[in-house]
Amino acid sequence: MSNTVTIIMIEDDEGHARLIERNIRRSGVNNEIRPFTNGTEAVGYLFGPDGSGIDRKGQALLILLDLNLPDMTGIDILKRVKENKYLKSSPVVVLTTTDDSQEIKRCYEYGCNVYITKPVNYESFANAIRQLGLFFSVIQVPSAAA
Fold first, then answer.
1. What pLDDT, on the 0 to 100 scale, is given for residue 1?
2. DSSP letter, residue 28
3. Mean pLDDT (the chain, rounded)
4. Comparing C-alpha atoms, which of 1, 6, 2 is closest to residue 90?
């Protein structure tokens, strides 16, 4: 079991993905970033071949999630992550162009930890990532249910 946080970036816009990664690095966060450009690949990685999520049991993950993906909605991914006993403790940062108050409310109801609207104020974004990184370095990530 690894205590190092892996950042899962689910973002279909290559320019946004590069900008996000650059700003994460600029903020001093050097954790591994696993980029995914669509929901299908990200869900496959997160939930594994059997769909249970057990492959990620005990892993510290931080999920950066765009809501507008080409093949599925980020909301669907958020719901699945937060309903999964192995993944539900993973923080989810929604990064999206949608600033609709109902959508924001729905994301928080489903369990997102931070909702950031693009174009992102990257100073705030970098601070949020640093704070979550600090959270992980101080808090022992609880083992997911067996």
1. 41
2. T
3. 85
4. 6
Q: Say yes or no to pLDDT of 114 above 90.
A: no
Contacts of 27 (CB under 8 A, 6+ apart): 126, 127, 129, 130
Coil vs helix vs strand at 34: strand
Task: Return the H-helix or E-strand segment holding 43.
Answer: helix 39-47
Buried residues in 85-113 as b, exposed as e (16+ CB within 10 A): ebbebbbbbbbbebeeeebbebbeebebb
Global pTM reads 0.84
Q: How many other C-beta atoms lie within 10 A of the C-beta of residue 115?
A: 20
Sketch the domain layout of the chain as residue ranges: 6-138
CATH of domain 6-138: 3.40.50.2300
* Token reading at 22: 């650059």
What pLDDT was estimated at residue 124? 72
